């Protein structure tokens, strides 16, 4: 009996795009050959799931090419009767402007009431998805006006807050609803298999699927891709490792992240040199190979690098893993290992028009939060004695004090590096040095200066955009606004100074008031000019999602 044709389970996702090449990722229901624009590759298997990754070569620079996807010769994409424009691959040309959309924190829920209501009206409400509003706009525009890439800065999925549909599948899989001690809490994923459900649901709605098929994407994980407060401190790690379900959760997290997110961040040349990918492709089922890798990634922080960079002509995008690669020794907290820092310093150079450094966690917070986190770290390290240190650790975990300022040595190290490149110490200074971040569920632009140090020749800013879909409720917004006040900053500064934290060598101020909506940001780079736009959605637009501008600022 002949097999039925292979089916497309998820994708296609257009990932890396260069001047004359691109990569396309898919998940299929069985082994097959995947073909795009005359280039093909066999699928590989992990735990019974099949994935295809095609490197499309021979493209013309500056082209906009519509493509079809074939599985074993049968066309599977575009879907019949699709209401969306054709999926295309748009290669770059030297000197071409760059338009980069970015944001973070996107829950997966139905896009209808009550889920489109505000959280203040219904606990289930998460308002209007900013990605869907972006798609609604793109459908009315010619391709040359679309973003060249979208950067997803963490929490693409929520492993600890699953959707009603994923929760139903989890309950069916685990039996009669009576969870064992080896299972995570209700509403959370357990292992690789359940992670695959999260990705499938997050990327399967028609609008998101079309967007990811035609706009190049880059990604990095953050805490909710694994667990809230993941790697906050060594005390947190030590405690979570005592739970019987944690090992399968973290192994499944790394396995799925490598397949669904990380591989697509790499260029075709990097993929060709990737020994792990070669081993998985050669295996009949690469599950055990990938499990061994995931276990090592959990145990040996310095041995795995998830950070990467992409060059867009005269602009460099450096994406830092500020979550999995942390050093959490009891006497030393670092956001990155020494091996990672060495790699970062190689990548952070001048002689670009623009240097973009993406890290899920903001480098420059509101002053109140910055001083609170820096002071808390010092207290946790014993500045006020052991009893205060234990209390400080509880506070650190309870209110998420784990951004760059809570790893103060790393904060100083990175801001010093920004000053060095902006002042021309690492080659001709770029026009702008822009830190792109998410995580904090509000959006803002902070402009930095370095008084008393060598003059900078670059604009140095922090641009934050979060969430794409997961807004705060009214009490949470009120608390964050309080942290933005001068009074809060003064009190937190006194705390930090009394704990022995020295003043920062960098100064910064916000360009306007932060916004707390579902939102997406767009960075436009033209020559040595840079412009940032932040746009939000409104709950009343749920039937016809639209974007509304909240910030428009020329950076350089």
Question: What does this protein look like?
Answer:
The structure is a single chain. This protein is of the alpha+beta class and 556 residues long. 29% of the residues lie in helices and 24% in strands. It is built from 15 helices and 25 strands. The chain has helices at residues 130-138, 164-173, 192-202, 206-214, 234-240, 246-262, 268-272, 275-282, 287-299, 338-347, 367-380, 386-398, 408-422, 474-483, 486-498; strands spanning 8-17, 22-28, 33-36, 39-42, 44-46, 49-56, 64-66, 69-71, 74-77, 88-90, 98-103, 149-153, 216-220, 308-312, 315-320, 327-329, 332-334, 354-359, 432-437, 444-449, 459-464, 507-510, 519-526, 529-536, 548-554. A hairpin with a 2-residue loop joins strand 16 (327-329) and strand 17. It is globular. The N and C termini lie far apart (65 Å). The mean pLDDT is 95.
Can you describe this structure in just a few lines?
The protein is of the alpha+beta class and 556 residues long.
* Percent helix range: 25-40%
Across the major sheet, the strand order is 14-15-18-19-21-20-22
CATH class placement of the largest domain: Alpha Beta
Shape: globular
Annotated CATH homologous superfamily of the largest domain:
Metallo-dependent phosphatases
**Which regions contain 5 or more consecutive residues with pLDDT less than 50?**
none
Structural domains: how many: 2
Main structural class: alpha+beta
> From the alpha-carbon coordinates, what is the Rg to the nearest angstrom?
23 Å
The appropriate CATH architecture of the largest domain is 4-Layer Sandwich
Cα end-to-end separation: 65 Å
